[in-house]
Automatic annotation (TrEMBL):
InterPro entries: ChyE-like, Class_I_gatase-like, GATASE. It comes from Microbacterium lushaniae. This is GMP synthase. Residues 66-171 form the Glutamine amidotransferase domain. GO terms for cellular component: cytosol. It holds the Pfam family GATase.
């Protein structure tokens, strides 16, 4: 995995399942957001959502077994939490926009999170979360609104509730897509976008760079 755009490949699990040779082809995986919620009733989930969850669980299982390296974000952290026997609920939503994230003591000693400023600002937008990490996970970051902001399983599986992957501009573009999906009042789009564009998200970007370096050297 190279640490620039040339070294990245994108795969949309909504449109196609994981290729059979995906773990041979790629050194690591970054899981972005999703139009779905893990806590949607099973009977209401579409075939596309089931395909997404199945593919993400495959990646998570490989990373938990140290067979690949993966960073799951937002919707992805819910998939990992459920797969490992944890509980995800609608009790811990966060507003769309910048949020303050604090490292735990374990976070300050972690290979990826250690050395990041604490607290730092990251971008959030979600309707569900977890009260505690799943069995076998180490809590790395937290805040008052959502107790589990990041954790690690072993040394090659990471999961964050916040989004480390988008720039502020890219995040506002995503907000426009989800403007009418209940994450925020549609009439507040301009105000919330301005808050996002004013935010400094340098520490999440550093985290992502460290992850790419770790995946490249694994």
């Amino acid at each position: 995995m190279q640490r620039d755009e040339a070294g990245l490949a994108r795969h949309d699990l909504v449109r196609a399942p994981l290729p059979d040779d995906v773990f041979d082809r790629y050194a690591g995986f970054v899981v972005g957001g999703s139009p779905f919620n893990l806590t949607d009733p099973d009977a209401e989930k579409s075939d596309a959502q089931r395909q997404v969850e199945s593919g993400l669980e495959q990646i998570a299982a490989q990373a938990a077994a140290s067979a690949t390296t993966a960073l799951f974000t937002c919707y992805g952290i819910g998939v990992v939490t459920r797969m490992l026997g944890g509980e995800v609920s609608r009790a811990f939503p966060e507003d769309t926009g910048p949020a303050e994230i604090r490292l735990t003591a374990d976070g300050t000693r972690d290979a990826l999170f250690g050395g990041l400023g604490s607290p730092f600002t990251a971008l959030t937008a979600h309707k569900e979360g977890a009260a505690a990490v799943p069995p076998g996970a180490v809590l790395l970051a937290e805040n008052d609104a959502c107790p589990v902001q990041a954790y690690r399983v072993g040394d090659r599986l990471y999961a964050t509730q916040f989004h480390p992957e988008p720039t502020t501009h890219a995040f506002t573009e995503r907000m426009a897509i989800y403007r009418n999906d209940g994450y925020f009042p549609a009439e507040d789009f301009d105000r919330l976008s301005a808050r996002v564009l004013e935010a400094s998200v340098s520490e999440p970007a550093r985290l992502l760079q460290r992850f790419a370096a770790a995946a490249s050297s694994a």
